[in-house]
Structure formats: C-alpha cells, structure tokens
Amino acid sequence: MYLNRLNIFRPMPQYGASLIEVMITIFILGFGLLGVAMIQDRIHLLNQESYQRGQALVLANDMAERINANRDNAASYSYLSSLSPTYLGVGDAMPSSCTALTGAARDVCEWSALLKGSAQSIGGNALATVAAARGCITQIQAANSTAGACQAGIYQIDVVWQGRSALFSPPTSVTCGKDLYPSEYYRRWISTRIGVGVPTCG
After folding, report:
1. What is the dihedral of CA 69, 73, 78, 82, to 10 degrees?
2. Residue 40: pLDDT band with limits 50, 70, 90
3. For residues 176 and 160, is the Cβ–Cβ distance under 8 A?
4. Beta bridge partners of 88
5. Beta-sheet strands, E only, within 119-182
6. Helix 19-69 crosses helix 103-116 at what angle (to 10 degrees)?
7. Is the pLDDT of residue 14 over 70?
8. Are 90 and 82 in contact (CB under 8 A)?
9. How far apart are CA 135 and CA 94, in angstroms?
10. Which of 31, 81, 132, 174 has the CB geometry, 3.0–4.6 Å to 170, for a possible disulfide?
11. How confident is the model at residue 2 (pLDDT cuts 50, 70, 90)?
C-alpha cells in the first residue's frame, strides 16, 4: 500500500514539446536564415564591385595601349580639357559612329563607346559592363625633344563609375566625374599613367 501511494506522486514523463519551445526554435532558425541571406547579399555585392573594377581596369589599359600605339600623336589624346564636357563616356558629345574619324580622334571616339557599353548591345540596347562609366585623359607632362632638356610625355588615364553602395570618396585631386554621381561615396575610380618617350633624344 505504501509503495502504491508513492507511485501515485511520481511525476509523469513529458511527451512532445510545448508551444513556447517550438516558437523559440522557429525564432532561432529564422534569425540564422536571415543572417545567411544577408551574407549572400553582401558577397553578391562585393562580386559585382570587383567585376566592375576589373572591367574599368581593362578600359584604362585599352586607352593606354591606344596612346602607346600612336606615340607620335600622343598629345592629341588629351584635348578633352578644352571641350565641354571634359570627359568621355556617359553624357559626352561623341558621335554614335566613329567610322568617319581617323587617328587619335577615332581612338577617343571608340573608347567613349566602350565606356558607354554601346560597343556591345542586345536588341539595340547598350550592354554596359561598368555602371555610368566615364573616362578622362590628362597630359601630366608634355614631351620635350629640346637638346639638354629631353623629357618624355606623361599621360594619366582615369576611369570613374558608379558603385553599388556608398563606401568612400576618391581623393579630392581626382576631378574626373566629380559631382556626376548620387554622392562622392558612390564614385569609384582607378587611374594609370603612361610615359611616351622622345625617340630623337639621344
């Protein structure tokens, strides 16, 4: 009888899970999935930024090769400083067709088309690889073939474009594309320089 009485007060085993335990599990699982989604979104954004930077570098090197191939007329590539706007690419005044142009003028026109993405199109729509790309060509130092003062010409090629998120602004000395984007924190920038020697200098 005493043992049976003890058995009456023995706690019953628990079966299943309570509603609050299920809710906590769902909350933790949902929070974890949200974190994974945010990480994937950030990785996708960084991949896009990296791709655009790589394409901008290709564009800068393309113009450097054009100048190098036409070294005798290198100064003709930096005439943009006297035009309005002083940049190439989105919003410039270059013609849609470059076939009537020759030499440096044609190189500049074709580079503008590459910056705009109009060199590649699908269904008549430009397939831009770099968002709102613009380029500037600046003569840093003029070539001088005078005896005793021999110096190579130096040209700077800047490519700017619109980033996918606000990160940091370019140096204040970079004027290419300034104030043409939602804010300076969206303006991405790369630069390269090319030296053009003077063959007549001994």
Report:
1. -150
2. confident
3. yes
4. 135
5. 121-122, 125-126, 134-141, 153-162
6. 170
7. no
8. no
9. 13
10. 174
11. very low
